[in-house]
Amino acid sequence: MSKRRRIYEGKAKVLYEGPEPGTLVQHFKDDATAFNAEKHDVIEGKGVLNNRISEYIFLQLAQIGIQTHFIKALNMREQLIREAEIVPLEVVIRNVAAGSLVKRLGLKEGEPLPRPLIEFYYKDDALGDPLISEDHIAVFGWATQNELDEIMTIAVRINDFLIGLFAGAGIRLVDFKLEFGRVWERDVQRIILADEISPDNCRLWDINSNKKLDKDRFRQDLGGLVDAYQEVARRLGIFSSNGHDGKKGPVLVS
Fold first, then answer.
1. CATH number of 85-206
2. Distance CA 232, CA 124 (A)
């Protein structure tokens, strides 16, 4: 890894120069952060789980025609991805009241929303990723109206698909964050899904007990973060319940 040129390092991932022009290597770290990195820890195995869960979901989304930056898995922690110009927006889709929405609007946690709610946050760690409106996006030129329309259309499609995917695994998709990028294809600029989709940026609750299976276990000092992520992977079929090489318990499978 030391021989590769580092392009960018975030709270949970590192991007390295890829083997070919227009590609990057996305490396998933074990770092866990919350509250704009005010809370930080290193949790062994978290990066492997996020890598594999995100890989699985991106492959599923490709099956329904969602264009993403994912090219292929390289190893247990890394993916080969397309290089893209990241749109400086975090797009949050909410199906159930939780997190900051509860605090801002005085809602009861767990209350289903009348319909999915899409929120935009300006992607800037120094500013704490502030909540913004569509008008902010237009005035400051962070995305064109056509791009924003496309982003919202893709976000709704992803939400509809993931609700069903997770429900089939006995999991309620409470909310999640998406990021998008711009790429050029035959002189045409396109919007594609970027970043990751994993328990790090989704709120996932057991559909019967409401047990939290996501990063809220770290945020709220509930413990058992890796066990929860393993449970998500197992339910999605990413884990085998059989032992491997004489070891007991679940193992990651392709």
1. 3.30.470.20
2. 29
